[in-house]
From TrEMBL:
Residue ranges annotated for the Enoyl reductase (ER) domain, each copy included: 15-325
Any GO MF annotation of the entry: acryloyl-CoA reductase (NADPH) activity
Listed name of the protein: Oxidoreductase
Lineage, uppermost ranks: Bacteria, Pseudomonadati, Pseudomonadota, Alphaproteobacteria, Hyphomicrobiales
Source organism of this protein record: Chenggangzhangella methanolivorans
Record-linked SUPFAM superfamilies: GroES-like, NAD(P)-binding Rossmann-fold domains
Superkingdom: Bacteria
């Protein structure tokens, strides 16, 4: 392929432009593996990149798309050969390194993981960074000793990508899950996914005391800000909160009280630079612990041309569950 179809972000004096282009293969960045990309996805961070709402893109021109799945076409890495099916999420792809909204990508072999048995490339992108991060959050809670017997687990941003996959995973693992959403009309859908209870996100939206009634053994939070502060305040003694997102804001208006008086732990989750053994463990767990019918029920498939409108919709909180892009 001397040139291939790609979405390209260019920086201009007025901000940025996003266009579909024929991208020359000679302009791909350094890497030892070339992949024919078959599927990608739209995460919140992709929405930030394409709308330019936050400066997640650090190099221009940029091909956005923080995730992709596809087939190796050429490799100088001892770990991969032509024909291998691979998945990539993170490592600055779509931010500092040309990303997944393109028919072709060249990356470091170290960034790839083999497509796990039991998942198709489309399934892997239905999971994507959002679902993979949900798995990392659940693994963080497990490592902390949060078990179904300890009590309910709260999931914020429940109708979003991270939230919906977290609910499906936690339900399969036997947890009583409480889904916090601003979209009560999605209540039946969330219950079908495995949510035991639904609360309106307004219940967590107003600034509250740092210590409130103890309700949750664990929390998976993708929204940050005041809702995260309230979730921490409602976590039981010895419980843990896995925090991965900022859909409500970057701030965290709380005090040390929950940490020093209740021994609550705040577990930060960063999916971008996770060491390979943990990546492989997380993808293996996803293949085992994520109900495929539920994954299908939260997933919408779109074409390449629908990436930009979907990126706008995700920033407006209008995307339900996960989105797969057929490249
Ligand atoms: P989505 O847009 O799919 O989900 C976010 C959800 O948050 C929305 O669906 C909505 O849920 C809720 N929400 C949106 N705005 C607000 C608000 N103002 N107040 C409260 N809740 C709100 O995004 P993703 O699931 O892809 O990502 C979620 C977050 O996690 C993002 O901030 C993203 O950057 C972060 N993230 C971080 C990663 C990491 O490595 N740390 C990896 C992946 C994601 P509802 O409609 O149910 O209320």
């Amino acid at each position: 392929m001397s040139a291939f179809r790609a979405l390209r972000i260019d920086k201009t004096d007025d901000g940025q432009t996003v266009s579909v282009v024929d991208f020359p293969e000679s302009e791909l960045m350094e890497g030892d593996v070339v992949v024919r990309v078959t599927h990608s996805t739209v995460n919140y961070k992709d929405g930030l990149a394409i709308t330019g709402k936050s400066p997640v893109v650090r190099r221009f021109p940029m091909i956005p798309g923080i995730d992709f799945a596809g087939v190796v076409t050429a490799s100088e890495s001892p770990e991969y050969k032509a024909g291998d099916e691979v998945v990539l999420n993170g490592w600055g792809v779509g931010e500092t390194h040309l990303g997944g909204y393109a028919e072709c990508a060249r990356v470091k072999g170290d960034w790839l993981v083999p497509l796990v048995d039991g998942l198709s490339a489309a399934d892997a992108m239905a999971v994507g960074t959002a679902g993979y991060t949900s798995m990392l959050c659940v693994m963080a809670l497990e490592r902390h000793g949060v078990t179904p017997e300890r009590g309910p687990v709260l999931v914020t941003g429940a109708a979003g990508g991270v939230g919906s996959v977290a609910i499906a995973l936690l339900a399969k693992l036997g947890y009583h899950t409480v889904a916090s959403t601003g979209r009560p009309e999605e209540g039946d859908w969330l219950k079908a996914l495995g949510a035991s209870e639904i609360i309106h996100r307004d219940e967590l939206a107003a600034p509250g005391k740092p210590l409130q009634k103890e309700k949750y053994a664990g929390v998976v939070d993708s929204v940050g800000s005041v809702p995260l502060a309230n979730a921490i305040a409602q976590t039981k003694s010895g419980g843990a909160v896995a925090a991965c997102g900022l859909a409500a804001g970057m701030d965290l208006p709380t005090s040390v009280a929950p940490f020093i008086l209740r021994g609550v732990s705040l577990l930060g989750v960063n999916s971008v630079t996770v060491p390979k053994p943990i990546r492989i463990e997380a993808w293996g767990r996803l293949a085992r612990d994520l109900d495929r019918e539920k994954l299908a029920s939260i997933t919408k498939t779109i074409s390449f041309d629908e990436i930009v409108p979907t990126a706008n919709a995700i920033i407006d909180g209008k995307v339900r569950g996960r989105v797969v892009v057929e490249i």
